[in-house]
């Protein structure tokens, strides 16, 4: 097993979706979440963590503590936290050793006598689109009759976004990593879960999601990070933001981000990078290549390979 993480890191992740619903609100007819003041699409950190958990469990064979398990097939009863903890004999150390999601995101482990709370080293802010979005509503007919003997098929309605480019910001805290035993191998699986997990969502509302940019900044200065990397990038378009439908309709201005990274290069060990070739950048660094970023910032840059 690799070493426990010793240095702090920041993560910046961009992905987009066309004609889908990246994160429905169950309290509002499962409509896409939109900030009414700004028109910006919102995706919860819980949604991203679910994407990562599902990928690591389904594709990488990792044990996940927080997942839906039916323990009574006849009645369809789902495990609660206490019953799930019993799967590990209520041993917190065993849960940490076996469950990568607890090492990453922490959690409350409900035991018979007491509960143990682990603060997750990996935390994400709410994801937000880099532009205003528009929500569309469609109606259609179902395949089955509304009731037995009926000649009328059921109707269905749904709300979706024609396009949304979503930005997530995250941090890996080395101090919390000591308590959950988060390792460098775990962090690598986290990145894979972010990128490939996003591509692997095949539900009707999320098929077509594409990861566009994944940036991980690893620091060498103790207890230090820049912060708010997501606020240092901007979407630039010649059309109203609500009319954006494709990566060809805009560019991403990363000049402020690059300038800040270069200014803090003495505090940064290296940068890890994966960028989709279709994303377009304003800065004269097209495509957003390792050689170009390294030359401009003076910071070692290495590719994230999946």
What does this structure look like?
- The structure is a single chain.
- This protein has 306 residues and is of the alpha+beta class.
- It has one domain.
- 24% of the residues lie in helices and 34% in strands.
- The protein contains 8 helices and 17 strands.
- The strands form 4 sheets. Strands 1, 2, 3, 4, 9, 10, 11, 12, 13, 16 and 17 form an 11-stranded mixed β-sheet that branches.
- Strand 11 and strand 12 form a beta hairpin.
- It starts with 8 loop residues before the first strand and ends with a strand.
- The relative contact order is 0.19.
Provide a concise account of the structure shown.
A hairpin with a 5-residue loop joins strand 2 and strand 3. The radius of gyration is 21 Å and the shape is flat. The strands form four sheets. Strands 1, 2, 3, 4, 9, 10, 11, 12, 13, 16 and 17 form an eleven-stranded mixed beta sheet that branches.
